[in-house]
Specification:
Helix content: 25-40%
Shape: elongated
Number of strands: 14
Oligomer: single chain
Number of domains: 3
Number of helices: 7
Radius of gyration: 29 Å
Strand content: 25-35%
Distance between the termini: 72 Å
């Protein structure tokens, strides 16, 4: 579906003057008077969304048509025919890293996003020709990299077509498309854990990088054994309150409160000596008080 682009009127004064000379009203465009250098809004404004999901950026750019009292599904947008999910140019989606779009693995890059809607299901299509018209005249199915089936659901009325990423974690997101009283959602999975592990494996021998990798395993992946391996690599390079404290937290996460307390006491000593303004003295003292009781209870 295509609608008229934004209208920018250059100096069309001569035509207007001639019309006036003939006693006629000045010529009118579909959206207003022909006036020198007047730019009017598009009927389908450009919409853009972008979201960082873990280490991957997902971005969508599309034209956003309005319902404007029209019947959309099965009429303005026919069933069983290719549609560009927008207006003017084909909707474009970009992934900064490899993803899984629905159940299809998709390399990093930009793609045109099309759909073939039916009454009961939609087929979302990613096509390699990212810069093509929304009419589909340039569409070639042999350039498809993914076809994913999704099912439309009833939704509150939305006057303009909109894309959104309402839910996401470090490992994935949900892309929603809504217009009129229908919405669909497609899951997008990213490879954050594998990307992080790859980054870690290529680390230079800096103690803080290994400490940060250990903290990531502690706070995000809950892989405490791997976190302890990384923090021990960090400690082998340099001992600092930061990596000693991370080790204490990892040990506590494994319910080894005795050794966690020993590491926390050492982190407290190093931090007080260093005078680092970021040193979390109160947090460490609170943990020591808590772990001490747990350590006694575990005996």
């Amino acid at each position: 579906m295509r609608t008229a682009p934004a209208l920018t009127f250059s100096t069309a004064v001569s035509g207007a003057v001639l019309a006036l000379a003939l006693g006629a009203a000045p010529a009118r465009a579909a959206t207003g008077l022909v006036v020198a250098n007047l730019e009017l809004p598009r009927e389908s404004p450009v919409g853009k969304i972008s979201q960082q999901v873990g280490l991957t950026e997902i971005a969508v750019e599309y034209g956003s048509p309005a319902v404007a009292g029209r019947k959309i599904w099965g009429t303005l947008v026919p069933f069983d025919k290719l549609w560009s999910l927008g207006a003017y140019q084909a909707t474009k989606i970009r992934f900064s890293r490899d993803v899984s779009f629905g159940d299809a693995k998709v390399p990093a890059g930009s793609y045109a996003l099309f759909v073939i809607p039916t009454k009961s299901s939609w087929t979302l299509i990613l096509n390699k020709n990212a810069d093509q018209l929304g009419s589909g005249h340039d569409y070639r199915s042999e350039l498809d990299v993914a076809r994913v089936e999704v099912h439309p659901k009833a939704a509150p009325h939305r006057e303009r077509l909109a894309f959104a990423i309402p839910d996401f974690t470090d490992d994935g997101a949900t892309l929603e498309i809504a217009w009129e009283k229908v919405k669909v959602a497609v899951p997008i999975r990213v490879n954050t854990t594998q990307d992080v592990l790859t980054n870690i494996s290529s680390l230079d021998n800096t103690w803080r990088a290994y400490a940060n990798a250990a903290r990531y395993m502690l706070e995000t992946k809950k892989n405490y054994d791997l976190g302890l391996r990384y923090v021990d690599q960090s400690l082998a390079l340099k001992e600092d309150w930061y990596n000693v404290w991370i080790k204490a937290l990892l040990l506590a996460a494994k319910a080894n409160y005795k050794d966690a307390g020993t590491s926390a006491e050492h982190a407290l000593e190093l931090g007080l000596k260093a005078g680092d303004p970021l040193f979390p003295e109160a947090e460490i003292r609170k943990a020591l008080a808590s772990w001490g009781g747990k350590s006694v209870a575990a005996r």
